[in-house]
Amino acid sequence: MPIYEYRCQDCGHKSSVFVRRIGLEVEPVCESCGSRRMNRLISRVAVLRSEDDIFQGLAEDVSLDDVD
C-alpha cells in the first residue's frame, strides 16, 4: 500500500496520499488551497531491515585486509 506525494501547482504545498491498492486512480486535492492541480513527486523509498541484516551488511562492507 503505497504513499504518494504530490505538490500543488497553485500554492506549492506538498501533500501525501495513502493509496489502498497499487494502480488505483487517485485524484488528490491540495490540503492548503483545495486545488486539484497536483503533480505527483518522485520520493525516496524507505526499506526496513532487521538488526541482523544491518550488522551483516556492515560486516561485508568493512575490509580489514589493510590493517596491521
Question: What does the model show?
Answer:
The chain is an alpha+beta fold. The chain has a single domain (3-61), classed as Rubrerythrin, domain 2, CATH 2.20.28. 16% of the residues lie in helices and 21% in strands. It is built from one helix and three strands; from the N terminus they run βββα. It has one helix at residues 51-61, and strands at 3-8, 14-18, 38-40. The protein has a three-stranded antiparallel beta sheet with strand order 2-1-3, with no helix packed on it. Strand 1 and strand 2 form a beta hairpin. The N and C termini lie far apart (50 Å). The mean pLDDT is 84.
CATH topology term: Rubrerythrin, domain 2
Number of distinct helices = 1
Helix residue percentage? 10-25%
What's the overall geometry?
elongated
Rg calculated over all Cα atoms: 20 Å
Q: For this entry, what is the oligomeric state of its chains? A: single chain
Quick take:
This protein has 68 residues and is of the alpha+beta class. The protein contains one helix and three strands.
Secondary structure: elements and pairs:
Elements: E1 3-8, E2 14-18, E3 38-40, H1 51-61
Antiparallel strand pairs: 1-2, 1-3
Structure keywords:
single chain; 68 residues; alpha+beta; Rubrerythrin, domain 2; 3-stranded antiparallel sheet
